[in-house]
Every structure is written in C-alpha cells, then in structure tokens.
C-alpha cells in the first residue's frame, strides 16, 4: 500500500497533473481538450498523462482517432482513505494536546494547588 500511496501523491505533486484531475472530476475529456489550457508541447503533456495513468489515477480509451481520458474514482478514493486515516490520527493527537493544555491552565489558576 505504501508504494501505491507514494505513486498517487508523486503523481499529484505536479500542478499540471492536479489540473488534469480537477478537470476530469467534472467529466471525461479527450487528450486535446485536456491539453488546450496548458502552455506546453503535446509530447510534454502526454508525459504528464502517462504519469497519471501509471499511478492508476486515470485511464485512456481510444476510439478511432480520439483518445479519451477518464478519471479512476476508485484510486482517488483509496488516496482519500489514506488521507482520512492520517487526518483522524492528527485530530486525535490535537484533541489530547488541547485537553492537556486546558487541564494545565485550570491547575495553574487554582490558588490551592501546591504545584
């Protein structure tokens, strides 16, 4: 699982690839539609798509001369699942830290406390 998570976030570490994912979240699109807003040569853009495809975040389908790119929602769900587990761990730690700070503050306000 760690290698998969590394691949997801490595692929999403580039702003061009994140933009492609954001666009595909609305609907599948042809390679030319995805390439249009990006100021780069098509071969360079295709390398970005290959990274996303290798990570399992998108898949392509060729119909005639048109290659359509589809988002792989299940893969994104696995990445979100990993993020959710990390968030839950950190929220629990933050809650414990907050409780400790509040307890120390209450104890510090107590004039009968011998500490």
From TrEMBL:
User: Which SMART domains does the UniProt entry name for this protein?
Assistant: HTH_ARSR
**InterPro entries assigned to the protein according to its UniProt record, in alphabetical order:** ArsR-like_HTH, HTH_ArsR_DNA-bd_dom, WH-like_DNA-bd_sf, WH_DNA-bd_sf
Domain HTH arsR-type: start-end pairs: 1-91
**PROSITE patterns on file:** HTH_ARSR_2
Q: Name one GO molecular function term.
A: DNA-binding transcription factor activity
One Pfam family name is HTH_20
Instruction: Please identify the protein, giving its name as recorded.
Output: ArsR family transcriptional regulator
